[in-house]
Amino acid sequence: MYQIYPLSFADSNGDGMGDLAGIRARLPYLLELGVDAVWISPFYPSPLADFGYDVSDYCDVDPRFGTLADFDALVAEMHRVGLRVILDFIPNHSSDQHPWFQEARRSRDNPRRNWYVWQDPKPDGGPPSNWLSEFGGSAWKLDEATGQYYLHSFLEEQPDLNWRNPDVRRAMCDVLRFWVARGVDGFRVDAIHHLFKDTQLRDNPKNPDYRPGMLPRRQLIRRYTTDLPEVHDAAREMRAALGQDGERLLIGEAYLPFDRLMHYYGAQLDGFHLPFNFHLIETRWDATLLRPLIASYEAHLPAGAWPNWVLGNHDRSRIASRVGPAQARIAAVLLCTLRGTPTLYYGDELGMRDVPIAPEQVHDPFEKNIPGLGLGRDPERTPMQWSAEKYAGFSSGEPWLPVAADYQQVNVERQRKDPDSMLSLYRSLLALRRAEPALSLGSYTELDVPPPLLAYVRQHEQRRLAVLLNLGSTAQAGAVPAELRGVQVAVSTHPGRAGAPLGADLLADEGVVLAL
Ligand code: NOJ
User: Fold this and answer.
1) What is the pLDDT of residue 110?
2) What CATH number has the domain spanning 442-515?
3) Ligand 1 pocket, 315 CB below 6 A?
4) Most buried by CB count within 10 Å: which residue of 239, 241, 352, 482?
């Protein structure tokens, strides 16, 4: 699966913001890359307080991105060429500009009032509980006109919907059905673990591990505001709204430890098909940590549950910036050879890096609300680098975020012609994955190699492929296990190695895939 952040992927009309027609024009590229499904981050009408994750109409397209007709044309073309379409679904909160909230805030007895979470002030006038917003400050906002607080787990422009209200659940599942009827193949559901909060409004406990400089919301442990058991009923309802034919995919976004995350598959595997596994993003890039991480994920998976791995997204620093360009190639091999569905963030296939954003260029409210901690997400949301043309071929007008300084070297046009580029590596890996059922369906068995190496075998029926990764920046002489020596390299991160037999040594930062 390939994630497109539509504001930054391709701009067809020169307004500096990407759009749906831009995506459609670039479908040949996605086919050439070799992906199966495309998840498109939000393009719904939105004041863009949180860049689309504040939705003011769930069933339309924001004019900046085009029209419903553009959307239909995009889906038709994607299906024609064999690509699946995954949309973002944002159930936890709407925009404060959504007509539902506009009505709800009109009066305490408005029929829509109970679509959101309202509470009287404490006797001292303060907020009803100590709950914190993910984006800083209290999660409660006083509505002066009606004298009550409303809950916002994210920005105050993103009031939380009340999922305990059956009318809300129905309306939101109708949204899913609306898009299913338009042909979409699935949804990535935003912030699912936030959906339900404690009805008694109990204060969250203090976090003893909090230290200044950490994310402010980490002052508290989110015991009463996230991962409540009721979320699983809601997940089942969303799943049911996808229809009975089993043709559509439900992905859930929740940053949780494995023991909590696994519940999101549903007790009968009737919840999310893929609760996103973000642990490659959250774990330090070190073989001594990654090997047990993979083993732990495999061990936690319920019987019959399908795994998945994510290397990057629009909320986190890019992989090439986190681990450096050489190890980003290792990460590519890892992502494409682990068991389960891999999700690739646009531009990571080029090795795009976070772009420094000057203070006056900051858009992200996370950075604006909590400056100085490096929380801003603009650096990983910059325009896709298509070519060496002005604005990297992303737009004919000035882009909404700056283009990376290195775009003349790091771009699709250039990397497409270079057999040793990151793009070519991704293409080889995805082609191999498509050709070898062992890589998509096979079992996973780790090989006993010392760090900084990480190695495993994927096997389907009689076919076995071995993956050997050097997570270190020095060559590893004699490190290749005896049974892998002399085997022909199918894919390597390094030029000139594919097609030749592997010796006893691995190069610095080298990763290889071998067909045994
Ligand atoms: C997760 C999304 O990925 C992020 O971009 C957004 O700010 C929050 N959820 C709130 O919707």
Assistant:
1) 98
2) 2.60.40.1180
3) yes
4) 352
